[in-house]
Specification:
Elements lengths: L3 H11 L2 E6 L7 E8 L2 E8 L2 H14 L12 E5 L2 E5 L11
Antiparallel strand pairs: 1-2, 2-3, 3-5, 4-5
């Protein structure tokens, strides 16, 4: 379930949206949803721990741009305290690949 603060954040970026799938892992360290908005599909990720959010945000701002073109990496659309919004890239989760 997406709380009201995350709903407002996603709505601000995507316009009206629907949740297509809950992609959260069982460990509960973060919650992840596949969304469909007016501007396309996106992935919303909410971290429980500020440290993990800060690490992922840093990686997306500092390291992924240097790898542009070398791999099919997600595009960070927006961030707010402990939440990240990415453009959706179709594919399989690594845990599902054998």
């Amino acid at each position: 379930m997406i709380d009201s603060a995350l709903t407002a954040f996603a709505h601000q970026q995507l316009g009206p949206f629907t949740v297509l799938t809950d992609l959260s892992w069982d460990h509960g360290e973060s919650a992840v949803w596949h969304l469909q908005g007016e501007s396309g599909e996106a992935v919303l990720k909410s971290h429980r721990q500020k440290r993990k959010f800060t690490q992922e945000l840093y990686a997306n701002l500092q390291w992924l741009p240097q790898l542009a073109g070398a791999l099919n990496s997600p595009e960070l659309l927006a961030s707010q305290e402990q939440a990240l919004l990415f453009r959706f890239i179709p594919g399989s989760l690594m845990q599902d690949v054998s």
